[in-house]
Amino acid sequence: MSGSRKDDHVRLAVAQHQALPAEPPYPAGPFDEVRFIHHALAGTDRAHVSLRTRFGGLNWPVPLYINAMTGGSPKTGQINRDLAIAAHATGVPIASGSMSPYLKDPSTADTFTPLREHNPDGFVIANINATATADQACRAVALLQADALQIHLNTVQETVMPEGDRSFAHWPAAIERITAAVDVPVIVKEVGFGLSGLTVAQLAGLGVRVADVAGRGGTNFARIENGRRPHADYAYLDDWGLSTPEALLDARGRGLPLLASGGIRHPLDIARALALGAHAVGASGIFLTTLLTGGTTALVQQITTWLDQLTALMTLLGTHSPADLAHCDVLITGSLHRFCAQRHIELRSQGASR
Length: 354
Ligand code: FNR
Prior knowledge:
This protein is α/β, with parallel strands linked by helices. The protein contains 13 helices and 12 strands. Helix content is 41%, strand content 13%.
């Protein structure tokens, strides 16, 4: 695992996001097919709205987190430091990028430890892949004094990655060994291709506590890895995977509390994901792009604005907690509606079952 690959990921992910407008009119995305029914008398008082969210034994002050990105090279170490400063300033939980570089070469530890050093009291999540041993999982948690551990599932990325893994059959057994070994809750996530209901049900049987569906719609790792191939020969996989709303609808009620990430563009998308059953919502590429174009001040401003506007949306929707959003009336339209029909997903008029 080379540091230059980590630098490539940052460069190519930011290029994807810079190609899209960060301000209105926003790029079209899968969340556009989720609409709240407006009830003009539903509103509550802002003073009665709390952003606190509890799920799977976790208790977070806000339903928003900086999702896994990076570490392993000097440049990505600085990015981790700046992300940690923003997390500390805003109180959002933060996940490390894959700690495989540290597990292979302990001298890269100082590209990950800023996540804890600059965010001493924050909720920090270590991140490993499903090929890690139980001992390596414990070392990753220990390095960051992590409050939880993410295991990422990335078969599509590995397939397109020129130097990628080609051996996936042992992943479920490895996940089970890791969940038994670590003393923090384990969150399993995708990296932008979505977790299906079937996968979430499997994970529930492996000792996993929380699933982050991490669906399609934002940073696209098929395109990123294809961009690292001389002939971009996997371009036909650009649209692979479940979108984040599809994955949420497919996976809810399958035995694990859900987190949502992938393609979150603004606070309304956060509210939509919470309405579809997520307990908290993560963003990666958009925050990274803000950081690298405007610095920590811009990222702190963006996160603060998102939390403020999420509170405003919850006020107008008459919801007092993130969990209440699951009882809002939502309309599912277009291809998302067809997806639900084919997957036999029942859409109740009054919110989503959790
Ligand atoms: C990622 N992501 C990621 N995920 C993971 O579990 N381990 C990792 O090491 C990385 N690395 C990584 C690098 C960069 C530069 C980006 C932008 C993202 C995936 C990330 O956590 C998330 O699942 C997807 O990016 C989808 O979310 P966004 O970017 O659409 O908000």
